[in-house]
Specification:
679 residues; alpha+beta; Immunoglobulin-like; seven-stranded antiparallel beta sheet; five-stranded mixed beta sheet; 23 strands; 38% helix; 17% strand; globular
Length: 679
């Protein structure tokens, strides 16, 4: 960080400092200062006193340049054929949203349902190059941009015309996420989207600078824009990095305004003396799980415009703090609406999971720490599929790492969620996860590859079957990854390049045992060497076509957990006892809380959007028919791994028995001890 930027940070108030500069430039003091200040110093200070945005360590590749292949392609198709791909056709809060043509409702005053859906759907549509899905998101894009207000406002106005209630910024954070992905994926729309965002940002800047963005006294929906300020900062940084149009100062000042007005996660929450060590009882916006998951990246993003090393340090302090006191073996933290401690009977909201994945992908890009990428993979390959039925038509609001059933539980064991939160359903508890959960895998796949501008290299970070195709500093590169990972530990890369370049493969922390190997173009296998905290092994790829083969060593890890339990992990995967169960189904139950809000907010809502159930979907109750009161002897566990002889996996890859590896071992029944269900 240069001294001039440090001085601006100390000054703190942009307007005060600008006034100071104007006074200095016009005063005699400037001529007196000239005797003591070399011209070169002023030339450095004045142009940079409003700051610069430091680049992230690694750069994102454009949405659509990475496509899932192999089992991941099958999974993407399952998602497209499931609820995510069809909710636009019938879902009341997407089809009927005030954000789309002909729509008239939202499930709350937060106006977020269709924005969540749009943010999730853009990447999937272009990853699959699916005409139907691309048509869905194009319709949303066209309606939104064609109806942008003359002052730059994006989206619907407040419900009451000429109301004194301020415009709500929060759902625009989500719309901007979708817009920037669309701008990357479809170059024919880039200018149109970028120009629309540039018309919007000055309005946001003016509103927040004047303090007219509203507060909680106007309704709880106004709180979210303050605790989730980093979501808007993300999009501002994308605009600065890619399409600033000479507005760098405005963009930087808007970032600072948002952070200054927003909740200070760094100073007022993620401190050992403040952060809750057990399940929260004083529930507020800072104990809220989704807010927490999104805020993981707040100071990483802030670091880019502050250069403050304590922003970096607090990022990793908060990660340690959160998972030490609330973590789960599946990679997530517990928050059944609010942070819930270590007791495995408490749950985790599905929205928490997808937001953690995105936060960790963002943090990795900025700082490059290998442990962060390991966390993202753990979530994507364990917590995410655990909370969604394998056909991707229903999901849980709250998942548990030790659940023996999925059913209505009344009274519920959760901190602040309803009795049906554990059911695999259409809108269990609340509709936010219904529209937000589809973002998990598409955004994970989109962040599989990064670039490093320092040496024009390409990085494979989130391991799995995929293909990257793009241009890196004038080098046309295609990388295809053939692998069953995480169900297998071998990866074969086929690389074509128009000129030589460095290709870097991330070596997971668990694979850095000295036994993970790599072979290039049929040569002798050598040990994978993970470079420093980034965990990267570099291959110098020549012009033309190359083949790289990687084999990861994946030791079995037995980890002590809560109340004498253990978790069994191999590589990126957790393992669990497969219980037999009896399944009963019913039409998808709608969220009663959301329906009540719709009736209150929209008294003239169409009756078709107010039905208590949705007949396009099904809720599932699963009750165990096999014994669950079992203990294992970890010393007897033996891995059965058929991945080496498996060439493909079923399309519904997370269905019971679809995976090519499992453990056998000795178990002991504790039926006679009358183990009881806790919670």
């Amino acid at each position: 960080m240069n001294g001039s930027w440090a001085f601006c940070i100390v000054v703190g108030n942009w307007e005060v400092f600008r006034g100071f500069l104007r006074w200095v430039m016009g005063a005699k003091i400037l001529r007196r200062m000239w005797k003591f200040t070399p011209l070169v110093s002023l030339s450095l200070i004045l142009p940079h006193c409003f700051g610069t945005l430091s680049p992230p360590l690694f750069g994102r590749v454009p949405t659509g340049s990475v496509k899932p292949t192999g089992w991941a392609l099958g999974q993407a198709r399952v998602q497209a054929n499931g609820l995510a791909g069809h909710i636009r056709d019938f879902g009341a809060y997407v089809k009927g949203s005030i954000w789309v043509e002909g729509g008239s409702i939202e499930y709350s005053a937060m106006h977020e349902s269709a924005p969540y859906w749009f943010n999730a759907q853009v990447a999937l549509a272009f990853q699959l190059d699916d005409v139907r899905l691309k048509g869905q998101v194009r319709d949303f894009l066209d309606w939104t941009l064609d109806h942008q207000q003359s002052d730059g406002w994006i989206g619907p106005e407040p419900l009451i015309p000429n109301s004194t209630v301020p415009r709500l910024t929060w759902p625009r954070y989500l719309v901007l996420f979708g817009l920037i992905q669309y701008a990357e994926a479809d170059p024919s729309q880039t200018d149109r989207i970028v120009n629309a965002i540039h018309r919007f940002i000055p309005l946001v800047h003016a509103t927040w600078k004047a303090g007219k963005q509203g507060d909680r006294s106007l309704g709880g929906e106004f709180d979210y824009q303050f605790v989730r300020w980093e979501e808007m900062v993300y999009s501002l940084q994308w605009l600065y990095d890619n399409h600033p149009k000479g507005q760098e100062d405005l963009l930087l000042e808007t970032m600072q305004l948002l952070r200054d007005a927003g909740f200070s996660w760094k100073n007022d929450w993620f401190q050992e003396s403040i952060f809750p060590k057990e399940a929260a009882t004083n529930l507020n916006m800072s104990t809220h799980g989704v807010n927490t998951a999104e805020a993981l990246k707040s100071e990483a993003l802030a670091f880019r415009f502050t250069g403050d090393p304590t922003d970096r340090q607090n990022t990793f302090d908060r990660i340690d703090m959160l998972y030490r006191y609330h973590g789960r073996a599946s990679g997530t933290f517990a928050a059944d609406e609010h942070v819930a401690g270590l007791n495995p009977s408490r749950g985790t909201e599905l929205c928490d999971v997808v937001e953690q994945i995105f936060s960790f992908a963002t943090i990795y890009g900025i700082f490059g720490n290998n442990s962060v990428a390991d966390r993202a993979e753990k979530l994507a390959y364990n917590a995410l599929p655990a909370g969604i039925m394998y056909d991707w038509w229903s999901h849980q609001y709250d998942q548990q790492v030790n659940q023996i059933w999925t059913k209505v539980m009344d009274p519920p064991p959760w901190g602040d969620n309803g009795p049906n939160s554990n059911v695999f359903g259409f809108e269990p508890n609340y509709p936010c996860c219904t529209v937000n959960h589809p973002s998990g895998y598409p955004k994970f796949w989109a962040h599989s590859f990064f670039t490093d501008k320092s040496d024009s290299s390409l990085l494979h970070v989130f391991l799995g079957p995929s293909q990257f195709k793009g241009t890196i500093d004038g080098n046309d590169v295609t990388v295809s990854v053939d692998t069953l990972y995480p169900f297998g530990t071998s990866l074969t890369y086929r690389i074509t390049a128009s000129k030589a370049f460095p290709f870097k493969i991330r070596v997971p922390g668990w694979a850095q045992t000295g036994k993970s190997m790599i072979a290039v173009n049929g040569g002798q296998a050598a040990q994978l060497q993970a470079e420093n905290e980034h965990g990267l092994h570099t291959v110098q790829v020549p012009r033309g076509t190359s083949k790289v083969e990687v084999t990861l060593d994946a030791p079995t890890v037995i980890e002590p957990r809560f109340n004498g339990a253990v978790s069994v992990t191999r590589g990126a995967l957790n393992f669990a006892l497969q219980l037999s169960n009896n399944e009963t189904s019913a039409p998808g139950l709608r969220s009663a809380q959301a329906l009540a809000d719709v009736r209150r907010l929209y008294p003239n809502a169409p009756p078709e959007f107010l039905t208590p159930t949705d007949n396009h979907t099904t809720d599932h109750t699963l009750l165990p028919t096999s014994e669950w009161r079992l203990a294992i002897d970890p010393s007897t566990l033996k891995l059965v791994d058929k991945s080496a002889s498996t060439t493909s996996l079923p399309e519904q890859v997370w269905a019971p028995g679809a995976q090519p590896l499992w453990f056998t071992g000795q178990s002991f029944s504790f039926v006679s001890t009358k183990w009881k269900v806790f919670g």
